[in-house]
Amino acid sequence: MKDALTIVAIVLGIVDLWVTIVVLRSKIFAPVQKVLQLLIVWLIPLLGAILIYGIHLMTRPRPEGQGAPNGVATPAAPPPPPQDEESLGGDEKHLYQPLFVPWLAQPEFQQYYSLASRQTVVSVDRCYTLYTLLLQAASMPGDIWECGVYRGGTAAMMAAVLAAKFPSKRLYLFDTFQGMPKTDPSNKDWHKEGDFSDTSLEAVKSYVGYSDTCIFKPGFIPDTFAGLEANQIALAHIDVDTYHSVLDSLAFVWPRLSVGGVIVFDDYGFPTCRGARKAVDEFFASDNHRPLCLATGQAIVFKS
C-alpha cells in the first residue's frame, strides 16, 4: 500500500507542476485569479495527502504490547495453526478430514460396520449415526424397529449390537423383501414400484441371524403392524424412501415411541426421496417436536 501511495503522490505532483506552468503562462487570468487557481491546485492534493497519511497511521500493524490510539493495548495476533504432524496430534492426524471423523477412531464400531457394509447402501457416516443413537436409545423402554430392511445390512449391525450389549431387546424388521410397493409421484416419490427387488426374506434371515431376538414381518406397511398395538418402541429406523410408507410408519410408531426414544429417518435429505421428507414435515407440522436434519442426509426426532 505504501508503494501505491508513493506512486499516486508522484503523479499528482507532476500534474500540479504542469497545471502551475500553464496557469502562470496564461494571459487569460488576472494575477489574483492566478493566485486563487494555484491555491486550489496545490491545497486539494495537500489535504488528500494528509488524510491518507492519517489513515495509514491508524491502520498499520502495531508491535505486540504497543498502545493503541485509545490507550488500550492491542492484543497479540493468534499463532498460526500448527503444520507439523506432532502438533496436529501425531498418529491422530488421519482422524481429521478436515474435521474429526469419529467412526475412524472407534475399532468397535468398525467391527459392527463390517456387518452392515456388505449388504447395505447406507454410507458409513449414516451407519455411525444409527449405531450411536442405538447405544443411547436402547436404554429406554421398548424394542428396536426397522422399517425398510432391504438386504439386511443395518439390521445385521443392530442385531449384533443388541446381542452383545442389550440381549433383552428385540429387533422388529418390516419390509416386503420383494422390492418397493406402489409409489406416488404426485407426492414427490422418485422411486418406482419394484425398485430394490434384489433381495429375499430367506436371504436376509440367513444374513442377519439372531433368530431368537429378530422378528421378521414381511409384507406391506401398515398391514404388517397389525397385532403390535401394545408394543413400546425405543428406537425406530425408518428407511422406506416414499411418502405413504413413511407417513404410515410414523402414524403407528410415534404414539408408541418411549419418551427419550428416537426415530432415525435415513433418507430425509436425499433428492431421490423428497416424498419421504414431505411426509415427515407434514406429520410434525402440528407438533412441538421438530426433525433435525443432519449433514449425512438423515433426520432425527427425539420424543420428549
Describe the structure.
The chain has two domains: 2-59; 94-302, Vaccinia Virus protein VP39 (Rossmann fold, 3-Layer(aba) Sandwich), CATH 3.40.50.150. A seven-stranded mixed beta sheet has the order 3-2-1-4-5-7-6, with helices on both faces. Helix 3 (107-117) crosses helix 5 (153-165). The protein has 304 residues and is an alpha/beta fold. Helices cover 40% and strands 12% of the residues. The protein starts with a helix and ends with a strand. The longest helix is centred in the N-terminal third of the chain and has 29 residues, at 31-59. It has helices spanning 2-25, 31-59, 107-117, 124-137, 153-165, 201-208, 243-253, 274-284; strands at residues 143-147, 171-175, 214-218, 233-238, 257-265, 292-293, 299-302. The chain has eight helices and seven strands.
List the helices and strands and how they pair.
Blueprint lengths: L1 H24 L5 H29 L47 H11 L6 H14 L5 E5 L5 H13 L5 E5 L25 H8 L5 E5 L14 E6 L4 H11 L3 E9 L8 H11 L7 E2 L5 E4 L2
Parallel strand pairs: 1-2, 1-4, 2-3, 4-5
Antiparallel strand pairs: 5-7, 6-7
Helix pairs in contact: 1-2, 3-4, 3-5, 4-5, 7-8
Helix vs. strand class? alpha/beta
What's the CATH architecture name of the largest domain?
Answer: 3-Layer(aba) Sandwich
| General form | elongated
Task: Give me the CATH fold name of the largest domain.
Answer: Rossmann fold
Query: Kindly state the mean pLDDT as a whole number?
Result: 85
Main pleated-sheet profile: 7 strands, mixed
Secondary-structure element pattern, one letter each: HHHHEHEHEEHEHEE
| Gap between N and C termini | 59 Å
Q: Which consecutive residue ranges, at least 5 long each, have pLDDT under 50?
A: none
Helix content: 25-40%
Strand content: 5-15%
- Gyration radius, rounded: 35 Å
Number of domains: 2
Number of helices: 8
The level-1 CATH class of the largest domain = Alpha Beta
